[in-house]
């Protein structure tokens, strides 16, 4: 037994239903070797990766409709990987990443559960350079600005891994740190826009806003 319990959830994104292994609830916790603790993941935070959050579902819906146009895409804080699974199903060049020690296993399981090839995954700390990851045309994330230091850490990831012409898309339920993140991306040459996301059928919690940042490389 792994020390935690799971369940299978069905989530409709567009015209397709995705089957997802998630943690049974927010009370699940198992860190027998201290891997999560060494990465700074507290017992209160440990189960957060293993849920389908409204903002994550909203991001997956956005990914179901965007123009892929050959873009290389990075998902930050992928959790169980719903948005990356949507992109994989559409044939996108996508890399999923997370810091949680179980995210890789959950993503691989969910890929197989949906009869998809395994999504390319990289374990990534936001505060540590990962040069081998390369650069991307589009960086996506959902509900990642829930602690004070996350805005600066996430902006650092964008600085290291966004191409000269790039987009960043975040779904955010209004945690309060998006202003700082926007200012830091403005310093990197990104312009910002946002719009309110529609409510998700069957979910009481709000999806929040889609924060969209765009940078176009100047032509010499």
UniProtKB/TrEMBL annotation:
<dbReference type="GO" id="GO:0032259">
    <property type="term" value="P:methylation"/>
</dbReference>
<keyword id="KW-0808">Transferase</keyword>
<dbReference type="Pfam" id="PF10294">
    <property type="entry name" value="Methyltransf_16"/>
</dbReference>
<keyword id="KW-0489">Methyltransferase</keyword>
<dbReference type="GO" id="GO:0005737">
    <property type="term" value="C:cytoplasm"/>
</dbReference>
<dbReference type="InterPro" id="IPR019410">
    <property type="entry name" value="Methyltransf_16"/>
</dbReference>
<dbReference type="GO" id="GO:0018025">
    <property type="term" value="F:calmodulin-lysine N-methyltransferase activity"/>
</dbReference>
<dbReference type="InterPro" id="IPR029063">
    <property type="entry name" value="SAM-dependent_MTases_sf"/>
</dbReference>
<keyword id="KW-0963">Cytoplasm</keyword>
<dbReference type="InterPro" id="IPR025800">
    <property type="entry name" value="CaM-Lys-N-MeTrfase"/>
</dbReference>
<protein>
    <recommendedName>
        <fullName>Calmodulin-lysine N-methyltransferase</fullName>
        <ecNumber>2.1.1.60</ecNumber>
    </recommendedName>
</protein>
């Amino acid at each position: 037994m792994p020390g935690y319990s799971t369940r299978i959830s069905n989530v409709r994104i567009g015209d397709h239903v995705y089957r997802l292994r998630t943690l049974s609830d927010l009370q699940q916790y198992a860190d027998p070797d201290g891997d999560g603790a060494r990465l700074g993941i507290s017992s209160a935070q440990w189960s957060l990766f293993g849920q389908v959050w409204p903002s994550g579902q909203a991001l997956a819906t956005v990914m179901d409709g965007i123009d892929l146009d050959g873009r290389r895409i990075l998902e930050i804080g992928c959790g169980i990987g719903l948005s990356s699974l949507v992109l994989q199903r559409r044939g996108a060049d996508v890399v999923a990443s997370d810091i949680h020690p179980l995210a890789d296993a959950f993503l691989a399981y969910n890929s197989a559960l949906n009869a998809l090839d395994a999504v390319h995954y990289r374990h990534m700390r936001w505060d540590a350079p990962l040069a081998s990851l390369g650069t991307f045309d589009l960086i996506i994330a959902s509900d990642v600005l829930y602690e004070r230091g996350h805005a600066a850490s996430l902006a650092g990831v964008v600085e290291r891994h966004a191409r000269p012409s790039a987009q960043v898309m975040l779904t955010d339920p209004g945690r309060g740190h998006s202003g700082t993140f926007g200012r830091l991306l403005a310093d990197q040459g990104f312009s910002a826009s946002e719009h309110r996301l529609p409510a998700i059928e069957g979910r009481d919690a709000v999806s929040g806003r889609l924060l969209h940042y765009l940078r176009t490389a100047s032509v010499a």
